[in-house]
């Protein structure tokens, strides 16, 4: 029986045919590259953003539906798979406070599994982007969006879990061999942890992969008795992206259910 017409691939046999075939392949590759360049231009992909844009579907699986990010959002957003994993620990929780919500990478995943999310960011543009992205995921009604400084708002916030993914000082955070908690912005990690602890001991922190682990686990000693703590390294496609610290009941061996 002869093969179906569509499955027959004409292999270039003569030198001339091979040359023509190679030229066609080159033209196709060039067209593909041009198309990609145009797309990047349209989406305002700056040289700094390019690396993250290439990972766009790891950051937001629904990227093509119209997800929007600004430059800081591109290099700071928690990849979706990691955000979903962090949210799992809060499944069924009443209120999760996302203290540094950015463009909504974490808030969206929390909203999928918790009753309510309070998403705070000091930058009004970020809050607008987070709202826009939450709409794409259909969870905007489960999130209260607040423009403000977490440190000022904290005394007035109530929640069952506080999630902390503060600025790490930009992509150059990796230049440090050992990332210490004083390098976090806008305030050091100890102060931040204490402010969060005044709300609840159930705290999740997303921090750099070059984090000083000893210093990080010592955060649990800021409470008496010390909090349960669990440290998890987060990977996407086998590449390390960050470290998540789970405190209190969010740690796997935490005592009570949330
Ligand atoms: P990265 O190390 O800049 O990217 O950020 P990547 O692709 O791992 O770079 P490579 O060159 O090392 O391969 C890794 C992840 O860290 C990002 O996807 C963000 O989730 C997170 N991240 C990076 N920064 C600079 C920040 C930040 O300032 N704040 C927060 N909360 N997360 C950040
Ligand atoms: N987890 C987020 C990314 C957070 S990046 C996501 O997945 O999208 C850190 C964010 O902290 C930035 O958006 C920055 O605007 C915000 N930020 C910086 N200082 C802040 C403060 N004092 N209070 C609240 N947000 C702050």
UniProtKB/TrEMBL annotation:
Record's subcellular location: Cytoplasm; Nucleus, Cajal body; Nucleus, Nucleolus
Keywords: Cytoplasm, Methyltransferase, Nucleus, Phosphoprotein, S-adenosyl-L-methionine, Transcription, Transcription regulation, Transferase
CDD domains reported in the protein's UniProt record: AdoMet_MTases
Family under the similarity heading: Belongs to the methyltransferase superfamily. Trimethylguanosine synthase family.
Stored Pfam families: Methyltransf_15 (PF09445)
Species for this entry: Sesamum indicum
Catalytic reaction list: a 5'-end (N(2),N(7)-dimethyl 5'-triphosphoguanosine)-ribonucleoside in snoRNA + S-adenosyl-L-methionine = a 5'-end (N(2),N(2),N(7)-trimethyl 5'-triphosphoguanosine)-ribonucleoside in snoRNA + S-adenosyl-L-homocysteine + H(+); a 5'-end (N(7)-methyl 5'-triphosphoguanosine)-ribonucleoside in snoRNA + S-adenosyl-L-methionine = a 5'-end (N(2),N(7)-dimethyl 5'-triphosphoguanosine)-ribonucleoside in snoRNA + S-adenosyl-L-homocysteine + H(+); a 5'-end (N(2),N(7)-dimethyl 5'-triphosphoguanosine)-ribonucleoside in snRNA + S-adenosyl-L-methionine = a 5'-end (N(2),N(2),N(7)-trimethyl 5'-triphosphoguanosine)-ribonucleoside in snRNA + S-adenosyl-L-homocysteine + H(+); a 5'-end (N(7)-methyl 5'-triphosphoguanosine)-ribonucleoside in snRNA + S-adenosyl-L-methionine = a 5'-end (N(2),N(7)-dimethyl 5'-triphosphoguanosine)-ribonucleoside in snRNA + S-adenosyl-L-homocysteine + H(+)
InterPro entries per the UniProt record, alphabetical: RNA_cap_Gua-N2-MeTrfase (IPR019012), SAM-dependent_MTases_sf (IPR029063)
GO cellular component, one term: nucleolus
Role, per record: Catalyzes the 2 serial methylation steps for the conversion of the 7-monomethylguanosine (m(7)G) caps of snRNAs and snoRNAs to a 2,2,7-trimethylguanosine (m(2,2,7)G) cap structure. The enzyme is specific for guanine, and N7 methylation must precede N2 methylation. Hypermethylation of the m7G cap of U snRNAs leads to their concentration in nuclear foci, their colocalization with coilin and the formation of canonical Cajal bodies (CBs). Plays a role in transcriptional regulation.
Protein name: Trimethylguanosine synthase
Subunit description: May form homooligomers. Interacts with CREBBP/CBP, EED/WAIT1, EP300/P300, NCOA6/PRIP, PPARBP/PBP and SMN.
Superkingdom, taxonomy of origin: Eukaryota
GO molecular function, one term: RNA cap trimethylguanosine synthase activity
């Amino acid at each position: 029986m002869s093969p179906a017409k569509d499955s027959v691939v004409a292999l270039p046999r003569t030198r001339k045919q091979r040359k023509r075939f190679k030229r066609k392949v080159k033209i196709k590759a060039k067209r593909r590259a041009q198309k990609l360049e145009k797309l990047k231009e349209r989406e305002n992909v700056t040289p700094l953003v390019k690396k993250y844009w290439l990972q766009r579907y790891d950051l937001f699986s629904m990227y093509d539906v119209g997800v929007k990010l600004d430059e800081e959002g591109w290099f700071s957003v928690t990849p979706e798979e990691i955000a979903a994993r962090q949210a799992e620990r809060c499944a069924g929780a009443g209120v999760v406070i996302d203290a540094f919500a950015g463009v909504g990478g974490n808030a969206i995943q929390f909203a999928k599994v918790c009753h309510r999310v309070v998403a705070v960011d000091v930058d009004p543009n970020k809050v607008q982007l987070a709202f826009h992205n939450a709409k794409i995921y259909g969870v905007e009604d489960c999130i209260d969006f607040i423009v403000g400084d977490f440190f000022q708002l904290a005394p007035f916030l109530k929640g069952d879990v506080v999630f902390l993914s503060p600025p790490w000082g930009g992509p150059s955070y990796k230049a440090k061999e050992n990332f210490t908690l004083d390098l976090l912005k806008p305030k050091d990690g100890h102060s931040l942890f204490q402010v969060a602890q005044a709300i609840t001991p159930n705290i999740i922190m997303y921090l750099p992969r070059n984090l000083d682990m000893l210093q990080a686990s010592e955060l649990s000693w800021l409470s008496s008795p010390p909090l349960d703590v669990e440290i998890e390294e987060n990977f996407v496609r086998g590449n390390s992206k960050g470290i998540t610290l789970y405190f209190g009941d969010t740690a796997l061996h935490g005592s009570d259910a949330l």
